[in-house]
Amino acid sequence: MSEELKLSVSKTKCFLQCKKQFHFSYILKMPKKDREYHIFGKFCHKVLEDFHNAYIINKSEKPLNIEMGSAYKAAINEYGDKMTSEMKKECHQIIDHYLRIVSQDKKNNLPANVIACEKMFYFEVDKNIILNGAIDRIQIDADNVLHVCDYKTVKNKKYLKNDFFQLLTYAYVMLMDNPDITKVRASYILLRHNFEYITTEFDLKEILEIKDKYIEYARQIAGERDYPANPTPLCGYCDFVDMCDEGRQKLDPSKIYGAVQW
């Protein structure tokens, strides 16, 4: 490749799922809609990030409920004016439930094993191919295995059970930082399902294979010229469906412009 190409998990998955959506988003750079479920996710991510960073970075000795309260208030200050009362109520329930989980862990003398939150990465996978993004959470489990986690606020978890591309990417990122590791544990943490984990483990061979996949995806992206649509029932969640003839024809017109349930 002669020109630098920056890839992320979301950018790559967008290309694989619908090239026309990719064209709108990353080539034409059309503005995206500020949907309620995006705000909901950002709110929960910020609370959990600030809460854990209080202990990881600032070495706080304050009680858990005090730090959680501070993290929650900071998120309200940033996102509260964009949230409905129902959203705030559910977010409060989720965060309160998590506080109970970590409080019980502390009571049982379990180790505070979260070592990083929102770990940023930016590095060259191959010549002129840059991989960038952030890992929600990294922890060391009781058996000393490195564990990467991604928070999810989805209501329907079935779509995650066989889709580990994101987590495999994060495992590769950690291997680049820690070349001596031989396996990585990885989980989606389902915030709306009582912090249930969908967990898998990757061995060294699986982790290394993701590099070749990104190189191939970069080749496809660089060579794409037509950007065809791939209409599915999920077009209703696309920010650009009102500009896409294929997407509009796929969906019930009454649902295209309606509010998406967060």
Overall average pLDDT:
91
Shape descriptor reads: globular
Number of helical stretches of at least 4 residues: 9
The secondary-structure class comes to alpha/beta
The tally of domains stands at 2
Architecture overview:
With 262 residues, the protein is α/β, with parallel strands linked by helices. The chain has two domains: 5-31 and 113-223, no CATH class; 36-107. The chain is 46% helix and 19% strand. The protein has helices spanning 9-17, 19-27, 36-56, 64-79, 85-107, 165-177, 204-223, 245-250, 253-256, and strands at 5-7, 114-126, 129-140, 146-152, 183-190, 196-203. Strands 1, 2, 3, 4, 5 and 6 form a six-stranded mixed beta sheet that branches. α3 (36-56) packs antiparallel against α4. The chain is globular.
